Amino acid sequence: MSSSSSLYKQLGLGAAGSPISPSHLLLLVLGAGFLALTVFVVHPNEFRIQSFFSNADCAQPHTPTHVATSPAAENATTPATLARHDDDVRVLIGIQTLPSKYARRNLLRTVYALQATEHPSHAVAVDVRFVFCNVTSPVDAALVSLEIIRHGDIIVLDCTENMDNGKTYTFFSTVARAFPNSSYTYVMKADDDTYIRLGALVESLRGAARRDAYYGLQMPCDRENFYPFPPFMSGMGYALSWDLVEWVATAEESARDRVGPEDMWTGRWLNLAGKAKNRYDMAPRMYNYRGVSPPSCFRHDFVPDTIAVHMLKDDSRWAETLRYFNVTAHLPPSNLYHL
Ligand SMILES: *[C@@H]1O[C@H](CO)[C@@H](O)[C@H](O)[C@H]1NC(C)=O
Ligand SMILES: *[C@@H]1O[C@H](CO)[C@@H](O)[C@H](O)[C@H]1NC(C)=O
Ligand SMILES: *[C@@H]1O[C@H](CO)[C@@H](O)[C@H](O)[C@H]1NC(C)=O
Ligand SMILES: *[C@@H]1O[C@H](CO)[C@@H](O)[C@H](O)[C@H]1NC(C)=O
User: How far is the CA of 188 from the centre of ligand 3 (A)?
Assistant: First the structure.
C-alpha cells in the first residue's frame, strides 16, 4: 500500500468517483504530509495516544486495557493477571484495522458486545481489541482518543500502517511483552471483514491443545488453490497458543522475515522452526463469503455451525450474514420503530 493510497483511505476518499480534483488531492496530500511532519518533529510525544492515558485506566481485573509500547506506559497498563485454571480458554482477538474505519469498528463492537450479552461465559473467555499502527492524522488521534476513553479496546502498535509489512509480527511480539504471565491461552489475529462467532470459537478451542497450537482455515486447501505454498492458516483469523506467541516475539525466524503476506509468513516461521505440531484446520467451519463466486474449498454458502466468515467487505454482506445467523431476530417489539 503506498502512503498516498492509505492517506486517501484515511481521508475517506475512494479512488473512483471522488468529487475532488487531482490538484486538490495533491494539495491535501502535501498538506497532510506537512501536518504529520510538524507534529512528529515538533511534538513527537503528543502523538502517543497510548501515553495520553497511561494512568487513565490502571488495569482493574477484567477491564479492557490497551497496550503501550513505551516502558513508562507499560507499567500503567499492566493487564489483569488472572489465576489460570488448566481448562480455561482465554482468547485475545486482535482485529487489524485502520484508525479511519469508524463505521466498521462500531459495527464490530456492537456485534461482539451482543454476543457477549447473550453468552456471558464467552465474554469472560474472549477479549476483542482493535489494532492499529501509529495514528498519524491529528483528527484520528482526537477521535480515537475518545474511543479509548470510552471503550478501552484499542491497541496502538509502534509501526507504520501496513498490511504485509510486519504489523502481525509487531502485534504478536507487542502482546507477548505487554502481558507477561498472561492468562490468555490463545491470541488470534483477525481481519476487520471477518465475522467471528465467539461461542463456536471458544467451544472448539476448548478441545485444542494449549501448547504448540496453530488454529484457523488452512491453506492451501486443495491443489488448485494456492498450491504449492507450504501450509499456513488464512489471514481471515488464526490463533496461536500463548507459548507460540512468546516464541514469535523472540525467534530469529520471525524477526528475519517480517515483510510479506502476513498469514503465509506466520506459517513459514512455524514451518521453518518445526513449530506448531498441533494444527487445527477448521474448514468447512471457517470460510469466505461466497456471493456469486463458485464454491471452493475455502469459499461456500453459510453453514449453521460456522466459526467465522470472511470477505464481508460491505454492509450488505454484513446484513445478509447477521440475518442468516438470526442476530437481528432478537429485536424487541416497540411502537417507536418499525424495520
Ligand atoms: C515500573 O514499576 C516498577 C515497580 O513499581 C518500577 O521499579 C519501575 O521503575 C517502573 N518502570 C517504569 C518505566 O516506570
Ligand atoms: C510511532 O510513534 C512513536 C511515537 O511518536 C515513534 O517514536 C515511533 O518511531 C513511530 N513508529 C513508526 C514506525 O513510525
Ligand atoms: C511472571 O512470573 C515469573 C515466574 O513465576 C515471576 O518471576 C515474575 O515476577 C512474573 N512477572 C510479572 C510481571 O508478574
Ligand atoms: C435461525 O432461526 C430459524 C428459525 O427459528 C432456524 O430455523 C434456523 O436454524 C436459525 N439459523 C441458525 C443459523 O441458527
Answer: 23
Do residues 200 and 307 lie in contact, with contact meaning Cβ atoms separated by under 8 Å? yes
- From CA 177, how far away is CA 190, in angstroms rounded? 20
CATH class, domain 49-281, is alpha beta
Task: Tell me, in angstroms, the distance from the centre of ligand 4 to residue 302's CA.
Answer: 12
In this structure, the number of other CB atoms found within 10 A of the CB of residue 315 comes to: 11
User: Which amino acid is residue 288, in one-letter code?
Assistant: N
How many Cβ atoms from other residues are within 10 Å of residue 285's Cβ?
18
CA 82/CA 112 separation, integer angstroms: 22
- What residue spans define the domains of the chain? 1-12+21-42, 49-281
pLDDT in tens, 112-163: 999 988 888 777 899 999 999 999 999 999 999 999 999 999 999 999 987 6
> Which residue is it, cell 482477538?
93
Q: How far apart are CA 140 and CA 134, in angstroms?
A: 11
Which of 69, 75, 77 has the most ligand 1 atoms within 8 A of CB, as the residue to mutate? Answer: 75
Closest atom of ligand 4 relative to the 302 alpha carbon: 13
- Residues 118, 121, 127: CA angle, nearest 5 degrees: 95
Segment 270-276 mean pLDDT: 96
* Ligand 3 lining (C-beta closer than 6 Å): 81, 180-181
Q: Which of 297, 301, 299, 296 is nearest to 321 (CA)?
A: 301
